[in-house]
Amino acid sequence: NTKKITNICCIGAGYVGGPTMAVIAQKCTHIKVTVVDLNKQRIADWNDADLDRLPIYEPGLADVVAEARGRNLFFSTDVDQAIAEAQMIFISVNTPTKTYGVGKGMAADLKYIELCARQIAKVSKDDKIIVEKSTLPVRTAEALRTILTSTGNGVKFDILSSPEFLAEGTAVQDLMNPDRFLIGGEQTESGEVAVQALVDIYLNWVPRENIITTRVWSSELSKLTANAFLAQRVSSINAISALCEKTGADVDEISRAIGADSRIGAKFLKSSVGFGGSCFQKDILNLVYLCQHFNLPEVADYWEQVIKMNDYQKHRFAKNIIDSLFNTVSGKKIAFLGWAFKKDTNDTRESAAIYVADELLQDRAEIHIYDPKVSKEQIFADLCRCEEERRDNLFDEVAKETYCDFLKKQVVVHLDPYTAMQAAHAIAILTEWDEFKTYDWKKVYGDVLKPAFIFDGRNILDKKQLSDIGFEVECIGKR
Ligand code: NAD
Ligand code: UGA
């Protein structure tokens, strides 16, 4: 008993839905893939003839879209039609941290997921396989089933969990050569048919041994666990970086030394100004909330510490800038190189840069920002949101306008890195963009105020070379 899929719909054309479906469409020419979103602008951008204007920047993505779009890959705002036609529906909508009510600041907000389920229930006339692609709390499939079957119209739904493990900046690579794809399904006859249908799709380009199948709950919880483990590695090495700065040990040497132990492994041990991105913090908070919900306070505290350490790391970096600049940055020009949460992406969600800038702005610094991929509008929106969160969403229009005026005075976004650094009191590296290594640092030295401070929040610059030029270089986890 098998089910051959020829028509897929994906709800949510974001960082996951867009690239994931583009790769499925490229690899499975026999499947019609329609990605839908309520956001009209986003869909228009995915359909833009100019591939430089796709809504997200990922190396290699434009080529994949160019090949498949209009052939078997479609972007549309007609959610109902795409749902009605599809045999398999991926749900790839956002699941942010709740900002209100029960579980505020911790639990995942599942309202978008619920809306999808209600829409699918309303529109579906024939049996469908529903795939959870979004990152969800364990046992969400149960809630989905309740909603999907609530119409009582006899349509049968099989629910799978197939969380996405791609990292931004390498999304296309990760999708083309995944360490694994994970599928959680029910151990019933139709559940197994559904699992096999999705296995068959992935098999078009992924070896069978890289496709793991599990129970639904294990699959859901594996995703939160994977992100918690990854973030924990960063917080662990960042914790050691603080001790390195006190003792004269070098955190990069430690990463190399411990990473050579195959049980530890070399990846994800790069000390930094702190992890960012839309998911690590949100998913750990979600995990912590689940543990609290199931009355496991020790487990909750254990994972919460990963976030506390990350907050500490961001704060430590900002405080070091203020301390080094003689205890105040008021009226001083601080140049920021990088705003994205990591290189090779235009995504800024939860970027450490936002929190460092915010802390410096509270000390009345003037911040001059250059990022090769992030727009001025995005940077101002990020800083505004940060203030809003601090005020616990009590941002009335007057307060907002006052703060926007303050930002307009204090923050300048540059299209050229050299003008951003011109006459700066200090330069801070917030993102590890490769191009920063290639700048003419001698020329920069001539243009900045002395002492010429560089705070390298990513340890990417050549400390010795810069010190020889005359810079005062401060790195993470080394003296
Ligand atoms: P995103 O915000 O970029 O995209 C989500 C999209 O869903 C938005 O465009 C939104 O308009 C759309 N949407 C919301 N509700 C809708 C509805 N009812 N109907 C139609 N469209 C709707 O989010 P993302 O970064 O792609 O993340 C999606 C999910 O994948 C999250 O659960 C996230 O945790 C998970 N995830 C993200 C990444 C990543 O690298 N960003 C990686 C793995 C997993
Ligand atoms: C992460 C996971 O790596 C993906 O597997 C997962 O699918 C995704 O979250 C998700 O669920 O959203 P992503 O956040 O895109 O991917 O990027 P990462 O490469 O994991 O980097 C996250 C943050 O950690 C970045 O700010 C990065 O600079 C920082 N980091 C990473 C370090 O500071 N040091 C490291 O050694 C690695």
TrEMBL record:
It comes from the Bacteria. Gene3D superfamilies: Cytochrome c1, transmembrane anchor, C-terminal, NAD(P)-binding Rossmann-like Domain. GO terms for molecular function: NAD binding; UDP-glucose 6-dehydrogenase activity. InterPro entries: 6-PGluconate_DH-like_C_sf (IPR008927), NAD(P)-bd_dom_sf (IPR036291), UDP-Glc/GDP-Man (IPR017476), UDP-Glc/GDP-Man_DH_C (IPR014027), UDP-Glc/GDP-Man_DH_C_sf (IPR036220), UDP-Glc/GDP-Man_DH_dimer (IPR014026), UDP-Glc/GDP-Man_DH_N (IPR001732), UDPglc_DH_euk (IPR028356). NAD(+) binds at residues 12-17, 37, 42, 93-97, 134-135, 168, 279-282, 349. Residues 335-463 form the UDP-glucose/GDP-mannose dehydrogenase C-terminal domain. Catalyzes the conversion of UDP-glucose into UDP-glucuronate, one of the precursors of teichuronic acid. This is UDP-glucose 6-dehydrogenase. It comes from Labilibaculum euxinus. The lineage of its organism: Bacteria, Pseudomonadati, Bacteroidota, Bacteroidia, Marinilabiliales.
